[in-house]
Amino acid sequence: MGRRIFGGAVLLTWLAMVGWQVRRVYFQPELARLAEAARSLAPGVSFYTLTMNGHSVGQATSRLDTVPEGFELDDLMSLRMPALGQTGTAVARTRVDLTRSLVMRSFAFSLDSDVGRFEATGTLDADTTLSVTLRSAGSEQKLHFRMEQPPVFSSVVPIRVAMGNGLAVGSSIRLPVFDPTTMGTQTVEVRVLDHDTVVVPDSAALDASTGRWSPAHYDSIPAWRIAEVFGGVTVDSWVDEDGRILRSSSPLGFSMEKTEYELARQSQQDEAQASGSGAAGGDVILSTAVRSNVDLSDAQQYDEIRYLLSGTDLEGFALDGGRQELRGDTVIVRRERWNRLDPGYRLPYPRMDLRDALEPEPLIQSDDPRIIKKAREITAWRSQWRLDPKQTARQLTRSVYGMIDKKVTFSVPNAVQVLDARRGDCNEHTVLFVALARSLGLPARTAVGLVWVNGAFYYHAWPEVWLGRWVAVDPTFGQVPADASHIRFVIGGLADQVEIVRLIGNLHIDVLDRRVAAADRGGARLASKGSP
Q1: CB-based contacts of 124: which residues, under 8 Å, 6+ apart?
Q2: What are the tens digits of pLDDT across the range 218-231?
Q3: Tens digits of residue pLDDT in 343-384
Q4: Are residues 224 and 355 in the same domain?
């Protein structure tokens, strides 16, 4: 009997030990498991060459260091990209301070571009509130985001997946990811698709006779192919066992590949020389254009244009509403008859139903004194006046059109910075217009889609204002109202605009017909497909 009792006790002890071990390995808190796994995370520096459609557009450096209480990730990216005969430059710097379990404690992001410097810094509080400060052109905004769980900084995602034992082919994980360029957090699904070996240069040698660098040796690295999926967009990457990127590509044709510093720098210098001689390619704007089957250079005379959209899933896009009507895969865009619009109110807009289109938001600082002052100068505002919304929309459109130098920029567009720099592309024109309009109590929002220019449809942004209904105007082209060659796909700020990326390389547009209404008679003339 004693032996049986002793044997049973041993069995129970063994089961308890096994149960404890299983719980320790599989049921311990996730952050504790991450901290244990991250102990093997090796510090180091990686260099990358950046390309756009096969042409070098920059270089990047990523440095991971260990610090007493965790890790610090420093990324530096330098871009020089051709666009419509111009060359836009930008330098982005990111520093993320991580705990031992890879939870973000703080971050600092800056972007230096043709329009100036944009900075965003943030800290994650104990209650998972992310406190962010934005700075640009002397303006400062403080924002607070309450999170259900600590967000993962965008550049840390692959490392987080690797350290979380997620690098198993067929596995997937969903993470809340914060992006400092959009000031938004969205759920990203990371899928592990494949396992293979990736070959990368691990040293470079200089040829004294030519003065050129070449790979001296290559390294074969076990790698996993992961897909980061968000908003219908997929970024495809090969990563090593620590989650450090070896190769990565996006739907825009933008790619990065691990290399040696000398090789990355030489590639960028070669492209700069080719650009100076007129031989460079890879124009970031031209590469995303959508062919047009009809010349719409006279689009402003048409009251209605019908388009057939194909090649991509249209679900989730803002193609229906306001001046646009979606019928199956055909979208009808009608240009508003300006003289027939009746807003039904005087400024400021008197009701609360359009609150989101009236309040300041990140990067649209409609409450900044400089924005308010400029808006009042444009409209000759007086405190005793209640401005006409139509006249105000026209004045703002023409003023923004005239004050901004038309230049392609690679920046995080924000209204105060644009007002200070006075140059930019459609994004800068739009964000400044929206801020000026809201400061006067005119409801305004951002629309993003495509517009016909010089034989093709290009991705474009423009404002919509509330004049009894949402009406499109275009301060980039000085159009009031905007012509019917503007096809809206997305409404909202940068965090929403990422949706447009899934159209690139897939969307096809065919102009079906165009209609011109006879003035004051209500008649219409039909222009058939393909006619000049």
Answers
A1: 103, 104, 105, 106, 130, 131, 147, 150, 151
A2: 999 999 999 999 87
A3: 999 999 999 999 999 999 988 999 999 999 999 999 988 765
A4: no
**CB neighbour class for 250 (10 Å; exposed up to 12, middle 13-18, buried from 19):** middle
Q: Which amino acid is at 208?
A: A
The answer as to whether 26 is a domain residue is no
Q: What is the mean pLDDT of the chain?
A: 86
* Same domain? 270 vs 302: no
Eight-class DSSP state of 506: T
Q: Are strands 86-99 and 55-67 parallel, antiparallel or unpaired?
A: unpaired
Q: Which of 218, 245, 276 is the last residue of a domain?
A: 276
Q: Which amino acid is at 353?
A: D
Whole-number Å distance between alpha carbons of 441 and 376: 11
Q: Computed from CA positions of residues 423, 433, 180, 141, in that sequence, does the dihedral angle turn out positive or negative?
A: positive
Tell me: cis bond preceding 532? Omega within 30 of 0 counts. no
**Residue range(s) defining the domain that contains residue 468:** 289-519
If you search the block for the tokens 């009042």, which residue do you land on?
376
Closest C-alpha to 103, from 144, 68, 142, 69? 69
Dist CA 403 CA 423 (whole Å) = 8
| Non-local CB neighbours of 525 within 8 Å, separated by 6+ positions | 515, 516, 518
- Three-class DSSP labels, 105-151: EEEEEEEEECCEEEEEEEEECCCCEEEEEEEECCEEEEEEEECCCCC
Alpha-carbon distance 484 to 296, whole Å? 10
Per-residue pLDDT tens digits for 452-508 = 999 999 999 999 999 999 999 999 999 999 999 999 999 998 777 778 888 888 899
- Give the HSE-up count for residue 48: Cα atoms under 13 Å, Cβ half-sphere: 24
CATH of the domain at 307: 3.10.620.30
